[in-house]
Structures are given as C-alpha cells and as structure tokens.
C-alpha cells in the first residue's frame, strides 16, 4: 500500500511540476518565499498582535484564508504565464511573473519582520530593490 501511495503522489507531483514548467530554482524560491511570508504573517498577528490586516492586530481566520487564496492565485498566474510561454516558445513570461511575485513576497516578509521589531540589514533591502527592478525589466 505504501508503494502505491508514494507512486500516486509522485505522479501527481510530477504532473503539477511539469505544468509549472518544471521544479526549478525560481519556482522553489517563490514557494519558499510564500511559505515564509505566510508564517511571518501568522507570527505578526498571533504573537505580536501588530497585523495591519485586522482591526485588533491579532489573528483572524478570514485574514488567513484571504492570504492563502492570494497565494493560490499567485501560483495560478505563474501557471498561466508558463502556458503562455509554451505557446510562444519562450521562457521570459514565466520568469518575469515569478521574479515579480518573489519581489512582492520579499517586501511582505521584510514588512512582517519590521512589525516584529527586527532590524533589516541594508543588503537585504538592496537585494529586494534589484529583484523589483529585474521583474519590471522582464515584464517589458
């Protein structure tokens, strides 16, 4: 039974990765950024009670679901961008979408860290600026 379950999970995972243009460094980084953003958002609301997304600043299930829905739609946009690339025989649309979303997630992570009182090193804010500029250039 264990082998069959592992096989099914592998097939489904492989199909999903193929639909997204393969599990490469860019997609792995985006998913990592998304997970870190969600976790830090939970920490801001659940521990520090400083979330700007709720009136009380505390955890609220609706705000959490909205965040998950946004992340799901982000992945759907990457999927659409990948399919557009396949039709056009290119790879820049997917990459631009991923870089743009990564920059957005990085900004959100930094904002969450700031809400927790964490000092942000200048090199990180500079790296986010580079990502943002690169995303804008690739979208053109």
TrEMBL record:
Any idea which UniProt keywords this protein has?
A: Membrane, Transmembrane, Transmembrane helix
Does the record bear Transferase in its keywords? no
**Transmembrane region(s):** 27-48
Question: Topology relative to the membrane, per the entry?
Answer: Multi-pass membrane protein
Where it sits in the cell: the answer is:
Membrane
Q: Does the keyword Endoplasmic reticulum apply?
A: no
Any one GO CC term of this protein is:
membrane
Coiled-coil portions: none
- Quote the protein name from its UniProt record: Holin
Q: NCBIfam families recorded for this chain?
A: holin_tox_secr
